[in-house]
Amino acid sequence: MKVLVTGYTGQLGHDVVREGKLRGINMIGIGREDLDIANEVEVYQYVQKTNPDVIIHCAAYTAVDKAEDDKETCWNVNVLGTKYIAKAAKKVNTKLMYISTDYVFDGKGEEPFKEADKPDPVGYYGLTKYEGEKIVTDLLEEHFIVRISWVFGINGHNFIKTMLRLSKTRDELNVVGDQYGSPTYTFDLARLLVDMIQTEKYGVYHASNEGFCTWAEFASEIFQQANKDVTVNSISTEEYPTRAVRPKNSRLSKQKLIDNGFEPLPKWQDALQHYLNELAQEVN
Ligand SMILES: NC(=O)c1ccc[n+]([C@@H]2O[C@H](COP(=O)([O-])OP(=O)(O)OC[C@H]3O[C@@H](n4cnc5c(N)ncnc54)[C@H](OP(=O)(O)O)[C@@H]3O)[C@@H](O)[C@H]2O)c1
To answer: What fold, for 2-158+182-209+251-266?
Structure first.
């Protein structure tokens, strides 16, 4: 099996390629320097040349706040880029897995969003990711759409790295405590995605580590596990204004994973412990 992975230079793509290689799969990981997905001709030529059995499309414009002011670039990458990838996949008859986000939902209520719930994004990034979902659904029958949330992995920037950096200079931090969701460790997710592409169980899935928390609870657990003496003050979303509106409820139901026989990811606290060990090994 040959698998083309976009977003290789990011958090998720990096771990997906690593996981596939460990299983002896021919993984081709590409970043923007290898292929600009917003260039239709190049996308088609590249996909035709490599002729993969599966494309795992992890690449995206992920700067949620910046997207509100740089809409054109965000659209070109997340909507047009996904369209070109999907069209190329169709032409060469390739399975496509599209990685999406909890930000496609409006964040209302307190119940976990189900896979079949109707998206209604509140920010521009979420809107473009939802447009990408619609394109994939319209163009291809053999597709997976996997919505994930609050991603952390070894290769890139994320909330945990920011908290650890801040702990070097601060002994007290204000962190938002009224947005609920689940962290997703790319090491754990990569295993699931590589399992999934080897099946024909197509459709929309939600995937994240087990359990829910707020960003403030996440931060407290990071400091506790990393033995950092930092006090976390839980504040409201209104007290921490950001350029993009974020959904308050990012809880995702993962019932469909279970219904289809896929193994749920570990609890987020266990994933965090594993990740801190991974970070420590990288430093040593
Ligand atoms: N991060 C999160 O918290 C989060 C939450 C929910 C869903 N997601 C989704 O999960 C997926 C993976 O996220 P991530 O955190 O791994 O992303 P990331 O670390 O920000 O990496 C983004 C990747 O996209 C590539 N890329 C950007 N523009 C490109 C272009 N024009 N052509 C080709 N490649 C381009 C980047 O390449 P360069 O490095 O070369 O620029 C990089 O490899 C994305 O689809 C994202 O929407 C992320």
So the answer is: Rossmann fold (3.40.50)
The active-site residue, picked from 98, 103, 124, 125, is 125
| Confidence at residue 180, expressed as pLDDT on a 0 to 100 scale | 98
What are the tokens at 152?
């952390």
Identify the pLDDT of residue 284: 65
Which residues, at least 6 apart from 20, have a Cβ–Cβ distance to it below 8 Å?
Answer: 3, 5, 27, 190, 194
Atom index in ligand 1 nearest the CA of residue 13 equals: 16
pLDDT lower than 50: segments of the chain: none
pLDDT value at residue 241: 87
Any atom of ligand 1 within 6 Å of the Cβ of 33:
yes
Distances (CA, A) of 246 to 53, 98, 162, 236, 243: 36, 22, 18, 12, 9
What residue ranges do the domains of the chain occupy?
Answer: 2-158+182-209+251-266
124 is catalytic: no
Ligand 1 midpoint to CA 4 (Å): 15
CB of 80 sitting under 6 A from ligand 1: no
pLDDT, position 283 = 73
**What is the maximum span of the chain, computed from C-alpha positions, in angstroms?**
55
Which residue has the CA at smallest separation from atom 2 of ligand 1? 151
Residue nearest to atom 24 of ligand 1 (CA): 59
pLDDT of 60 reads 98
